[in-house]
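Please review this one:
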Amino acid sequence: MSLMSRAAVLLKQSTQHRLLSTSAAGLSAALSSASDKQEIKWVFLGPPGVGKGTYASRVAKLLGVPHIATGDLVREEVKRGTDLGRKMQDIVNQGHLLTDSLILEVLYRRLESGKTAGEKGFVLDGFPRTHAQAQELLSCADVGLAVNLQLREEVLLEKCMGRRNCTHCGKGYNIADIHLPASNGFPEIIMPPLSAPPECIPHLQTREDDTEKVIRARLAAYNAQSAPVEKYFRTKGKLLEFQISGGIPETLPNLLAALQPWIPRPPTAAPHVIPAEVADRQAKAGAKVAVAGL
């Protein structure tokens, strides 16, 4: 890499870091003025591979609330080898989405344990996926915002096939190196790999359901079910549409800026109104004092 190219890369990284720091500071400032009585209860929507977990976890950390991923809850159930876990594994391996009753069962267990532990709100991703799930969720939790992350489908496919999980530390990475030119009204997309550190590389594994056939089936199933969910939150004035057009360094600052207006604020106190007759007496009394001082 030439000196000029290296300097350009460093400048871009510095700019991205500054934008991210500014956006994070703005979100923190908005949160500091939020009402203590209004908890952050947000959900992240979007198709498989869009980055719900990545962005939801970072936002949750900045907000100081737990990040709850239904996908992780399901995988933990599968890992434990329970009857429920084995049933869910069979469904996922066939490229189908899990039924409402199965998802609700594992999710409600987690929400109840969080209440018992004194958690104040949550950022949820991977749920709701159906209109019925959305209704059920809002019946038991006062969700304030649904963030709908959007990304071109050809990028989603490549991202899903590039996902890798580290069996040693539990973190997720992505080996996909994406660069698509602008076309059909969509902006250019540049997404470099999310590389694992050297100590994680020997432990990287591909998820069993991240095959092209399964991914395409999951995307088709998601698209069929997502429209009613988006409409449900939109009609309630709780939907934020957000288009992803780059990697995390380019996207996260813009997302944080878009989220700031949704931080719950304490109610504004009504202005104190002085009755007209009282105001008239005060005005006359003030005039008398002014004359006496001459």
